[in-house]
Amino acid sequence: MGELLANTLPGMRDLLPEEIARWQSAEDRARRIFARYGFLEIRTPVIEATELFARSIGAETDIVGKEMYTFRDQSDRSVTLRPEATASVVRAYLQNTMYRGGGVTKLYYIGPMFRHEKKQKGRWRQFYQIGAETLGTDHPAADAEMIETALRFLESMGIKAELLINSVGCADCRPQYMDLLRQELRKHLPALCEDCRRRAETNSLRVFDCKVESCQPYIQKLPFIADHLCGDCAEHFSSMKSCLQEAGIAYEFAPRLVRGLDYYVRTAFEIVSGELGSQNALVGGGRYDGLSEVLGGPRVPGLGFALGLDRLVMLLPEDQSSGWQWKPELFLAYMGEPAFRKAQDIARGLRQRGHACYYDFLAGSLKSQLRLANKLRAEHVLIIGKDELERDRYSIKSLKDSRQWEVTLSELESYLQAQAKGRAV
Ligand SMILES: [Zn+2]
Ligand SMILES: [Zn+2]
Fold first, then answer.
1. What predicted TM-score, i.e. pTM, was given to this entire model?
2. Ligand 2 centre from 215 Cα, in Å?
3. Which ligand neighbours the alpha carbon of 212 most closely?
4. Whose atoms come closest to the Cα of 216: which ligand?
5. Res 260: pLDDT
6. In this prediction, what percent of the chain has a pLDDT beyond 70?
7. Closest-lying ligand to the alpha carbon of 217?
């Protein structure tokens, strides 16, 4: 035997069958809730031209600067594993001219993203996001509905979360504010951290993301963009807030919540959970009316959010998963070769009619088979021995209440069917 190649790459992990139930429950619920709001699923490639992300996310960001999985493929093309999906979805929207006809397009996605981040607890280099995008409208009700969709999904998973909102202005009002912000920052430049000093000139809004303790007193005193909105942006923000109120959604105004790129306009929001500690954002989203043009398309207003599935799953209680955990309705225990063939035959028929059945290829004693049935949390065990084969009557045992009785095969099937009906109610 050679070297055992039994390690994932650093920062990568397997999601094993025993934890997958919680993932499936979140994904299934997302599909159901998003469908209620009219979002349709889109699946884009996990790999795209590097330029797509460099342009849409911004060369100045940590994501593009330090964290992307970028390499040259066999055609010597620079390609990148997607670090997020909004750029891909908007690319797909443009490539497939979904804007034709001028309507609103609502899309959602579920899938893996890739960032070569510094190793830290709870951060994975392949991580999963659920996200939604609404393209083709700048109506403030679309912003409120987007937020509502995300919140209803979290609620349906039993997660309590808080909504933070802000407006980051537009191409008309932001430049003036940015001048003001830069002036303020220049006054304190020597006292700020290295990142802030760099951002002060290149991407001033990102100063608000700084977590360095010594920067905070200065950041606290900076002017807020929400106090410098133009009439249209102020109107949009206040309509969006009324829509939230009408939907019965509580929010907190977060004047420091910003997104650093030019094409991000107006609504910015986050949904946070106190249960997550300092890295508490579950959902981040906002409006990006200029993104389509950045990617060479026509002007198409849009907005979206992305939700970190790895973090969400961490918040789900174990017991929520039990209903999703796979378990056989019937475990077939057999003694001897002819009984094994009979077990396979019975299982095959029942499986075709929708019942989850299991038997052990490695069957040892009856006792060891019963042990396995218990471990798999089977609901019933059917015992097939020489006697049973001859009489074509089998003993069935409920592992829930240890009741045991005899059945013919047709009785067995109607019994399992009745059980399944009971479960469905
Ligand atoms: Zn404005
Ligand atoms: Zn700083």
1. 0.88
2. 5
3. 2
4. 2
5. 65
6. 96
7. 2
